Amino acid sequence: MKLATIGVILGLIISVSWIIWGFLPMIGILVAITILGGIGYFLDAKGYSLNKLAAKMLDKLAN
Fold first, then answer.
1. What transmembrane ranges does the database entry give (predicted)?
2. With 70 as the cut, is the pLDDT of residue 1 above it?
């Protein structure tokens, strides 16, 4: 079910981007999504989580 949802969202992003901005900006958007998704996948594989990062940042701010 997750992959189907991701596919639908990706298709929506591609079609809306192509209609609104044209071809080259759409490619830029897809490249940015791919790069940021890859970074997110890499951080997830390394074991980082948003909760741990937020707790660490709040702890540093509190000190």
1. 18-43
2. no
**Eight-class DSSP state of 63:** -
Residue given tokens 């209609």 in the structure block? 19
Closest among 32, 34, 30 to 15, alpha carbons compared:
30
Structural domain count, the chain: 1
Q: Give the tens place of pLDDT for each residue, 13-33.
A: 888 878 888 888 878 877 888
Q: What is the spatial distance between Cα 17 and Cα 28, in angstroms, rounded to a whole number?
A: 10
For 11, the domain range is 3-62
**Nearest-CA neighbor of 13 among 38, 39, 27, 45?**
27
